[in-house]
Amino acid sequence: MKFQIFFVTILSLSLWQCEKDDICSESTPTTPKLIIRFYDFDNPDTLKDVENLKVYGIDESGNQIEINGLGIVTTDSLVLPLPTHLNEVQFEMFKGYENSETPGNKDVVLTGFQTNDIYVSRACGFKTHYSELSAQNTADSDQWILNLEVIQTEINNTIHAHVKVYH
Amino acid sequence: MHMSKFITSLFLIPLCLAVGSAQEASDNIVVTDSMTTDSLHVPVKFGIRLGADLSGLGRSVFTDNFQGFELQGDYRITERIYAAGEIGSADRNIDEPNINFSSKGTYIKLGGDFNFYRNWEGMDNMIYGGMRLGLSKFSQTINSYTTYTTNQSWPSPETISEIKYDNLGATWIEFQFGMKVELLPNIFGYVNFQLKRLISNKSDGNIDNLYIPGFNRTYEDGQIGAGMSYGISYRIPFYKK
């Protein structure tokens, strides 16, 4: 009979199980971002800073999307997340931005792309790679972006620049 | 070091307990001719033992993420060695934070058990170690997923999909440690713990096999799996020797 009691004890212990959750590691390559580099229009091989640049994304309903971690910057390179559920998106780029009252000079860049979802892992799920990238500047009366050039139509890493902007 | 102490004590506890139960058990002995001629050998029942896994049945009834069953059987070859195996089917749905998928298939495990436990007269219990070769054939469906991005500026809605991968397969070697206890004459309760290592794992190439029926969940950076099972089995006695 004691053998049976031991058996029941082992059985009860076996019902008490737990499983650790996987966490997607920061270092895992997941959805890549769009890299834009700014060049001097008069001297196309030379990088040139944009003064006080502020960028918003525009969603499919026309709402401004704040880009996380991106404030007002003076820079010659920009890393922008692209949506994974759309095939085109606009970015409003303000040069000389101070605040929403005096936003400086706004230019709108329209980007288009195809998305391809790729399995990463149990913890990370899927990532999106982009292809057939296009980018164009929407015309307005006062443009600071003078030319745009897509140099890499596939976005599958966040290492190399995809778009050159001349200003 | 601690682990080996723990395992050793697992063996010792039932041995101590068994001393007390020896006397009760002796009532069950049936006197046969062989006993009178060879007083050192106590005859044991030989036969085939068939069982049903209750852990899977319980999960099928009480949870909605598992449907499956497992049948288990062993055949006594010598007093302490058994040929043993399991067949089963499983349909498992797993909802991870970024991926929801189902695995569905069947499996068979074949091998043997060795009874470490020295029974007293009339007892027929097992504390055993066993080995199996496991084989599973299954399909995997990705029901939905979210795309992972380190910058959450844009919403990343869940993508509903029905990506199904058929003809997936895996083989593994499995070590079992368990008990089989005679609760009533010829009726046994069993519980076992399983440690498995994949030998082959044929995935679609795009997506890992995240759950393999019979093997259970897989881990990203390893070939190791684990499992447990408990149930009830019935022995059809053939003869005594």
Structural overview:
The complex is a heterodimer of chains A (167) and B (241). Helices cover 8% and strands 47% of the residues of chain A. By secondary structure, chain A is mainly beta. Chain A has a single domain (29-166), classed as Immunoglobulin-like, CATH 2.60.40. In chain A, strands 3, 4, 5, 7, 8 and 9 form a 6-stranded antiparallel sheet that branches. In chain A, strands 1, 2, 6, 10 and 11 form a 5-stranded mixed sheet that branches. Chain B has 241 residues and is of the alpha+beta class. Chain B has one domain (43-240): Porin. Chain B is 16% helix and 56% strand. Chain B has 3 helices and 10 strands, in the order H-H-E-H-E-E-E-E-E-E-E-E-E. Chain B has helices at 2-25, 33-37, 54-62; strands at 45-53, 66-76, 81-95, 99-115, 126-145, 159-184, 187-202, 211-212, 216-217, 224-240. The longest helix of chain B is centred in the N-terminal third of the chain and has 24 residues, at 2-25. The model of chain B is unreliable at 1-37 (pLDDT under 50).
Supply Rg of chain A.
24 Å
Per the CATH scheme, the topology name of chain A is Immunoglobulin-like
Query: Structural class per helix/strand content of chain A?
Result: mainly beta
Mean pLDDT across every amino acid position of chain B: 84
Number of helical regions of chain A: 1
- Distance from first to last alpha carbon of chain B: 41 Å
- Which CATH class of chain A is shown? Mainly Beta
**Beta-strand content bin of chain A:** over 45%
Largest sheet of chain B: 8 strands, antiparallel, barrel
Model regions low in confidence, pLDDT < 50 over at least 5 residues of chain A: none
